[in-house]
Design a protein that fits this description.
single chain; alpha/beta; Rossmann fold; UDP-galactose 4-epimerase, domain 1; 2 domains; 7-stranded parallel sheet; two-stranded parallel sheet; 11 helices; 13 strands; binds NADPH dihydro-nicotinamide-adenine-dinucleotide phosphate; binds guanosine-5'-diphosphate-rhamnose
Length: about 350
């Protein structure tokens, strides 16, 4: 019988790549989607016809229990979150509820549905993956960051993710559940939300190239990140749930670039000079910035055999090309209508 996976956050970037990957591995894939008429569900269905959808919300404990009862999954991937860091200052309580408490609700749904209690050997039937984040490192105490680097989150989002991370560890230790966290560094693709800097830049370049815009407004150009390709990172999520023992892993490329270098690479890919178009705007700076993040993915390489495949310049060029195609064909990224 096919293995069954339940993915929260199915309508997001990672949800789509993970669903695609697991379908390719022969899984029966279910996605948890919220809202009675979520336009992103139709966008997903256009891309992946085989995904089945179950309604539910990370804010609603009962809906998660019902979803787990209905799907009877072998593996649960908790990717649902408010994931845009600036929004976490504007809606700090909601971020805590969805990104933080949502993890508790999902773990409880699994625990209750699989009859797990302290010291109960029936534990561990459903394997659980939590989407932890390099934002938990925040103001870093060492570079590169490993599974042992201390957390010092710099946003309500980072704090909520740290709660989810420790809680996942705690359910593993308290109940013997197979529950793990992937501490993933930034990963991008042509399906990235338009609010994140890589996609904002690739869309901005495409608009300028096609004569639809004359400038691109950005915040802090000096911030440095470890950017990889989302398609590579979902493989790591799956590998973590196939390992002999449940453990947490750092996932990233080990290479760091600045926003300025990202901008240079993107404009270069369209044969444009970035200095003629980029305007910096103090209003786009964050109340507390994470200056740099760089992964040490050695544990994942050695224990899981995981390696990233797409170099930075290729990733950026791929995103710019995809947005040039999208806009040339009349696609509208703000309407959530199209997905490469
Ligand atoms: P996206 O922002 O693209 O997707 C977020 C998903 O969460 C959407 O499907 C959204 O659904 C869903 N969601 C939001 N609120 C709720 C809710 N109340 N109940 C259920 N689902 C909800 O994120 P990514 O795909 O980029 O990231 C996936 C996960 O990985 C997130 O948890 C993110 O924080 C984490 N992460 C991402 C990294 C990255 O670089 N991409 C790096 C490290 C961690 P809807 O369509 O209904 O809004
Ligand atoms: P991040 O991603 O906050 O790292 O979180 P984002 O792309 O939003 O920012 C990266 C860096 O770019 C700087 N920046 C800008 N960012 C945005 N969005 N818009 C701008 O105009 C701009 N100008 C400069 C930011 O200050 C920042 O330093 C992502 C999300 O996917 C999280 O969910 C995830 O956990 C982390 O990556 C790892």
């Amino acid at each position: 019988m096919a293995r069954r996976a339940l993915i929260t956050g199915i309508t997001g970037q990672d949800g789509s790549y993970l669903a695609e990957y697991l379908l390719g591995q022969g899984y029966e894939v279910w996605g948890l989607a919220r809202g009675q008429a979520n336009p992103r569900v139709s966008r997903l269905r256009k891309l992946l016809t085989d995904v089945q959808v179950v309604r539910g919300d990370l804010l609603d404990q009962g809906s998660l229990i019902s979803a787990v009862e209905r799907v009877q999954p072998d593996e649960v991937y908790n990717l649902g979150a408010i994931s845009f860091v600036p929004m976490s200052w504007e809606q700090a309580e909601l971020t805590a509820e969805v990104t933080g408490m949502g993890v508790l609700r999902m773990l409880e749904a699994i625990r209750v549905c699989s009859g797990v209690s302290r010291g109960n050997a029936a534990s561990g039937q459903i394997r659980f993956y939590q989407a932890s984040s390099s934002e938990m490192f925040g103001q870093v105490s060492e570079t590169p960051q490993t599974e042992r680097t201390a957390f010092h989150p710099r946003s309500p989002y980072g704090v909520a993710k740290a709660y989810g991370h420790f809680l996942t560890q705690n359910y593993r230790e308290s109940y013997g559940m197979y529950a793990v966290s992937g501490i993933l560094f930034n990963h991008e693709s042509p399906r990235r939300g338009a609010e994140f800097v890589t996609r904002k830049v690739s869309l901005g370049v495409a608009r300028i190239k096609l004569g639809l815009a004359t400038e691109l407004r950005l915040g802090n150009l000096e911030a440095r990140r470890d950017w990889g390709f989302a398609g590579d990172y979902v493989r790591a999520m799956h590998l973590m749930l196939q390992a002999g023992t449940p453990e947490d892993y750092v996932i990233g490329t080990g290479r760091m670039k600045s926003v300025r270098e990202l901008v240079e690479a993107a404009f270069r890919a369209a044969s444009l000079d970035w200095e003629q178009y980029v305007v910096t705007d103090q209003a786009l700076h964050r109340p507390a910035e994470v200056d740099l993040l760089c992964a040490d993915p050695k544990k994942a390489r050695v224990q899981l055999g995981w390696e990233p495949t797409m170099p930075f310049d290729e990733l950026v060029a791929t995103m710019v090309e995809a947005d040039l195609r999208l806009l040339s064909n009349g696609g509208d990224p703000d309407q959530d209508s199209s997905w490469p």
